[in-house]
Amino acid sequence: MLFPPIKRLSKIAKSMKSPLWAIPFLASCSSMTADYKSNDTEKGSGIYSITSLYGGGLRSRETTIEFMDIDARNMCNSEYTIIDEKTLPVMNRLGEVRVSRLTWKIKCNSEAEAAPP
Q: What is residue 93's DSSP assignment?
């Protein structure tokens, strides 16, 4: 018999459904990968834009901010200053806010600015 019986396939499909419901839930709780964009008007100005999406879960904005902070520190290799912060809701066809887009415009501090006097 090349193919398993239909009843067996049905049983396998039913067992796969239970873990699948968790995927959208877990995706909304975690921070999505941040997008980086250099806004250098002059070469080496150290101004960047970082964008990330977050869902409506508890502490999702705070978690996203923590991840963006880590990303900004890694990008600058030093401290940074947030020049601008924008939050834009992303709506579905029904007008419901499903996720929000958080964008930071940051300026990397030079080593002289980052070091305490």
A: T
The yes-or-no verdict on residue 70 having pLDDT over 80 is yes
Identity of the residue numbered 58: L
- Asked, for residue 103, whether it belongs to a domain, the answer is yes
Domain span at residue 100 reads: 6-114
Provide the domain count of the chain: 1
Q: What is the pLDDT of residue 57?
A: 81
Considering the domain boundaries, does residue 1 fall inside one?
no
The DSSP secondary-structure symbol of 101 reads E
User: Under 8 Å CB-to-CB from 39, ≥6 apart: which residues?
Assistant: 45, 47, 48, 49, 105
Q: Does the pLDDT at position 30 exceed 50?
A: no
Write out the DSSP string of 7-59: HHHHHHHHHHHHHHTHHHHHHHHSPPPPEEEE--SSTT--EEEEEEEE-SSTT
